[in-house]
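Practice problem: predict the structure.
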Amino acid sequence: MPIQFVLKVTTCFALAGASLSMSAAQQTPPPAGSDSSSTQTQPQAPAQQPSTSPRTTPQSGAPQQPADKDNKKDSQSAGGKVEGTSNDRLFYTLPNFLTLQKGQQLPPLSAKDKFKVVALGTFDYVQYPWWGLVSAISQADNSEPAYGQGWLGYAKRYGTTAADSSIENFMVGAVFPSILHQDPRFYYLEQGGTVRRTGYAISRIFVSRSDSGKAEFNFSEIFGSATAAAISTYSYHPKSTYLSTPTNPHLFVGSDRTLTNTVSVWGTQVALDTITLVIKEFWPDVHRRMVKKHRAEAAMPPSTSP
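Answer:
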């Protein structure tokens, strides 16, 4: 499991870097003066028109819009397919729909919306080749040898990888947050130095928000990932079996349905979630630098050949 974990993390960065280099040139920078991070997208101001609205022509004693309308407007500014979420993608590829800027006043997500946004990220088109890549790494490492090798063994590993990922996503992002009324969204800090922001991102594994906005222990992450590890390990991961190999026609392979393996899977999931949060924290900085570089290159006069 440790070797497989290192390979998965390394591959994650490689895949993200490849996606970054392929997509950077195709991205159109946002209009000048707008925020470069897609998680902070603000609605365009309408063309100026004569209006008697109390918000466009403030006067003494003019009525103000109710707070719930302001919250709705703030949530829509996130630009996600689900109200109160974003439409961001890490490195323009990996779904990042539950990441928002800290300080945004957003209404709590309903249980229905929590399940919907998790489903959008879990079954996003990027996930299918990603599961295939992780499965190939597992096969090369011969993890869970009871699956064997060949295409049948690969198919079993692919199904296991997809199921593990899906169950963990729903338990951490939808099931437990709905039961415990916790907010599954990650609010990046984007203020302070690297050490402070890294520490903040790591701490979000243990600190979450309630739907009312109060800080509390992140039961959804810790218990949700543990429950997902137990469900996957004891339901469809391989039992002990015998394999026929060229050197041993009756090779005994022990069961993976053990407490030790469950704890190992749990630890791996929490570690991957921690690394992902750190990447999410610094992604807006990377995004802005990319846009700035793209603008600088676009502003350069075209070279004229002699």
